[in-house]
Amino acid sequence: MLRGNCRSVSKETRHVAARLQTLDSRGLLGPSVPVGGWRRVAVDCLTVSGATVICHGLGAITSLLLKVLLDPAQMGVWQALKMLLSYSNYTNLGISKGAVRDYTIALGRGETTEARRGLDLAFTFNTVTSLIYAALLLGAAFWIGAGNASPTARPWAIGLAVMGGLAVLSRYVTFQVTILRAHKAFDLTARLSVLEAVLTVSVCGLATWAWGVYGLFFGTLVVLLGTFLYIQQYRTVDLRWAFDASQMGRLISVGGPILLAGTMVTVFRSLDKLMILGYMSDREFQLGCYSVALMVSGQIYGLGNMLSIVMNPRYGEKYGETGDRREVARLAAASSQLHAAAMALPAALSVILAVPLLAKVLPDYQTGLPALVWLAPATVTLVLSLPAGQYLVAVGRQMRALLAVLPAIAVAALGNHLALRGGFGLTGVAAATAVAYVAYTVLVVGISFWQELNRNQRGRHLLLTALVLLPTLAVSIVLERVAPGNQVGLSAILGKTLIVTSVWAVTIAASWFWGGWEHLWKRRRLS
User: Fold this and answer.
1) What's the number of CA atoms in the CB half-sphere (13 Å) around residue 403?
2) What is the biggest distance separating any 2 CA atoms in the chain, rounded to whole angstroms?
3) Which is nearest to 257 in space by CA: 99, 449, 91, 93?
4) CA 478, CA 481: separation in Å to the nearest integer?
5) How far is CA 372 from CA 207, 289, 360, in A?
6) For the chain, what is the radius of gyration of the CA atoms?
7) Contacts of 205 (CB under 8 A, 6+ apart)
8) Other beta carbons less than 10 A from residue 234's beta carbon
9) Do the Cβ atoms of 517 and 468 come closer than 8 Å?
10) What is the SS3 assignment for 64-78?
11) Could you tell me if 138 and 160 are in contact, meaning their C-beta atoms sit under 8 angstroms apart?
12) Domain positions in the chain
């Protein structure tokens, strides 16, 4: 009797497994579910986005306040010093990225002992290399201060010395924040961002008001000390000194390509600005006008990047949990579709609202506004490349990301060259950049999760992405071309806004039911 029941259960199990395999082969199984479920993803996105809005507001106030309190020369020194501080991120050679990538996979498996040691090795390497970089900055500060009696040398000398201390502290804080994100502790990192923004506007503002640029230097140090104390209180991992040359080399081989690919993407996104400076005679004026389009597209990219930060650790966890690249690919495809749904409306509204608003607020920058019609939609396609790149990192194929960005840089350089030599101006630069963004996204998706999807899944992914993205963006562009925002009244602008929002709502509703997104909230797993 028992043996018969066991045979019956075994037969039923095989039948269910075969049925799931059939559904998967037809692309009907639906999106993969991240560890913790999609509800948790939505909560994390709301938490991070709320903190981001607050930080952007406080950041704008801080920027204006510092420009009022400092003269342009002092502001130039500060900008240069911040750039030097940012270079400290490259001193770790990517070892922290490699260690955290291994750690997220281990979290999915539930076996973190070995990966935990990798974090210790990364901490040791981070600390030593940041100390070396700090020593170089201190040496430069001493050389400038001792060998130059000019009053302009003093801010550089003191600033470089302070940057040395900041380099060590910032590397530790950044590493701990990355580990918190690996644990999906986005509530803690969101509070840290708000705390840092509040401290910056208050402490740095008061210190700069009292002591000028030197107050800004030491105020920034106080802010970083505050974030350090916060991290010490809420850290999830106690980092210890450890040394293993072979394992350090392995982690660098994993994280180095990730760091290099990220650096090349930064160059890719900056190429239009560099070529404007290199080709145009009135380069400063033209880049200033182009900056209004960059400002809006930067906000769009920041929103998409915020969504990708929330999803990033979940790819590694899924790979650790299943060991199956196809599962991670389906999760990345679903994330890409949701990115498209979330980004379509902000980008479309930017096209029809930002142009008339900026034309009134910044009338001297109007020659750069047509570029916005190209850059805003193109930035959405660039956002869609983020899940693909994160998928490559999660499954250990990070070198492939370079294969996509290098040809894209060539496309952008050629397109911008032709636009600038052909006399197409800033609008031509934006159009060439848009083409490069689309080319890059197609390349990186094609060499990442696209290869793990079957024919039906690929068709479903393309249809859903096109449905939630193209109608909304196309309608906004057509409306802006037919009735430019800087030439119509308020009622026409409101009418265009209503039309674009309605089109977006219809496409989202259709995708919600036809694409199976309603099941995202029903299928949950415990993290």
Assistant:
1) 13
2) 98
3) 93
4) 5
5) 38, 11, 15
6) 25
7) 62, 65, 66, 69, 219
8) 15
9) no
10) HHHHHHCCHHHHHHH
11) yes
12) 41-243, 258-520
Give the dihedral of Cα atoms 519, 182, 394, 320; nearest 10 deg.
-70
Neighbours of 72 (CB within 10 A): 8
Helices 72-86 + 153-182 axis angle, to 10: 40
Amino acid at 462: L
Q: In 239-282, which ranges are continuous DSSP H helix? A: 245-279
Residue 110 phi/psi, 5-degree rounding, is 80, 15
Residue 199: C-alpha distances to residues 173, 192, 203, 417, 455 (Å): 16, 10, 5, 44, 52
Instruction: Please give the Cα distance from 383 to 302 (Å, whole number).
Output: 9
**C-alpha count within 13 angstroms, C-beta hemisphere, residue 384:** 33
Contacts of 457 (CB under 8 A, 6+ apart): 27, 330, 333
Residues 6+ apart with CB under 8 A from 450: 329, 388, 458
Q: Residues with Cβ < 8 Å from 15, sequence gap 6 or more?
A: none
pLDDT band at residue 515 under the 50/70/90 scheme: low
238 neighbors 230 (Cβ within 8 angstroms):
no
State pLDDT tens for residues 432-474. Answer: 999 999 999 999 999 988 888 888 888 888 888 898 889 999 9
Please, are residues 437 and 382 in contact by the beta-carbon 8 Å criterion? Answer: yes
Where are the alpha helices (H) located in 323-384, listed in sequence order?
325-349, 355-361, 370-383
Cβ contact 371:427 at 8 Å: yes
Q: Phi and psi (nearest 5°) for 483?
A: -130, 80
Half-sphere exposure of 177 (CA within 13 A, CB side): 18
Is the whole-model pTM more than 0.85? no
Report yes or no: 35 and 315 within 8 Å, Cβ to Cβ: no
Q: Are 143 and 169 in contact (CB under 8 A)?
A: no
User: How many C-beta atoms surround the C-beta of residue 181 within 10 A?
Assistant: 20
Q: Tell me the two tokens of residue 93.
A: 């050679």
- Which tokens hold the place of 465? 């992405």
Q: What is the per-residue pLDDT across 163-213, written as a single tens digit (0 to 9) for each? A: 888 888 988 888 888 888 888 888 888 888 889 889 999 998 898 898 888
